[in-house]
Amino acid sequence: ATRVQGTFTRLLDRIIEDATRSGWHTVARVEAPETPSAEVISGALRPRNATVGVDAASSESVPHLLFNFRVRLMTDERVDRFESVLIDTRSGKERRPAQSLFDERLSLPEGDSVDRAGIAEAYRTACRALEARVEAGVKAFRDGAEALRKAEVERITSYFDRSVNEVLDSKTSGAAEARALEMERERRLAEADEKFRFVGDVELCNVRTVLLDVTRAEATFSNRGARRTIPVEFDAANFEVAPLPCEVCGASTAEPVLCFG
Predict the structure, then answer these.
(1) CB atoms closer than 10 angstroms to residue 86
(2) Residues 16-65: pLDDT tens digits?
(3) Which 3 state secondary structure label does DSSP give 216?
(4) HEC profile for 195-212?
(5) What is the pLDDT of residue 217?
(6) Contact in structure between 57 and 43 (CB atoms under 8 Å)
(7) Which DSSP letter does residue 46 get?
(8) What pLDDT was estimated at residue 23?
């Protein structure tokens, strides 16, 4: 399994120390939209057999931490990719990082907006999320390199086995030349192993505090006297309401059904 190693804690410690010593640091503030929350929620929830009413909507500024990682994969080629993980410091859950969160115009000087005691746990959560996100891609990259290595090893082995046999068959005293070919074969095999050896590492580039407005509300489905009220939320960066899970099977659906009875 792919592992994101915790080798970046020194950088994280420096970030926390600098922020604590200076007394403030710049953060990104994203405020709730002017669009009515009922409009956002009703547009996201499209029940097949019910109408949607939205009540008790309220917004609050919730501290988040945006961890920006650099993922580097190397074999005979090198792939660099950047991944960002946004963690809600209150719930400990991951949110999708919208592109707007990287806008420097959102930066403002802030006081103690984040509980620094929770940064380490948020960092571990971000690492787990990153590991799950890149694991399939890393496995495919590594398996591809291994297939190329095996093909190269087979080619080298076949060529030198054939060459050694030809030397031994053509000369009565070709043992020295055959040995030289065998040594060259071992050298070429070692080169192939090194060329296609998989190396992967992850670097924590920076951490950014994001004060993100989160709107919570109660969505009520109703049809012919049947009613069901469900808590929902969306953040000011994504305007997305997560699909509701079925209360029977747990599967998420964009078009829920109000059950009767």
Answers:
(1) 25
(2) 555 545 444 567 788 877 778 888 888 888 888 888 889 888 999 898 99
(3) strand
(4) HCCCEEEEEEEEEEEEEE
(5) 92
(6) no
(7) -
(8) 46
Q: With H, G, I as helix, E, B as strand and everything else as coil, classify residue 235.
A: strand
**253 beta partners:** 244
* Angle in degrees, CA 140, 143, 148, rounded to 5: 125
Longest dimension (CA), the chain: 100
pLDDT of residue 3: 45
For residue 155, give both structure tokens. 């080619």
**Residue 147 reports pLDDT greater than 90:** yes
Q: How far apart are CA 149 and CA 193, in angstroms?
A: 7
State the pTM of this model: 0.74
Question: Amino acid identity, residue 243?
Answer: P
Integer Cα distance of 71 and 82 in angstroms: 6
Burial of 104 (0-12, 13-18, 19+ CB in 10 A): exposed
